[in-house]
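Record type: monomer structure entry
Structure origin: computed from sequence
Chain ID: A
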Amino acid sequence: MEKIKDMKGVFVEKKEGCFALHYRGYRGDEEEVRKVFRDFVVKHPPRKVIEGKKVLEALYTDQDKGRAVADFLRLTGWNGREPVIYIGDDVTDLYAFRKVKELGGTALFVGEEKPPEADGVLRNVQEVYSFLRKLAT
């Protein structure tokens, strides 16, 4: 992973039990970034690799965003009566969508095509802001 220091627009996000290699701002050959990631995970095999929008995530535990949602709700004292709304834009959010729907909430995907796990689509960030403003009033 030393090689990414010279790759402007590439960074590692360290999380509990996993890490994500982001390259949304990288202007070079994306295959070069993928090779750095592959070389690392071959030496340090994760339980699972998730590829998203300009991000590669290596999971070393069974944690995912669905479990994170459940943990968050439990830790905040959610009683099951308040509505839960989750908005996400990547494949890693699909786990959270499933969990939110299981809990009777609403899962909204930001993008063009609605994945089966989502209840609806917000096409872009402006639509997210508009939705949140309406929700707040």
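Annotation 1: The longest helix spans residues 30-43.
Annotation 2: Residues 2-59 form a domain with the Alpha-Beta Plaits fold (CATH 3.30.70).
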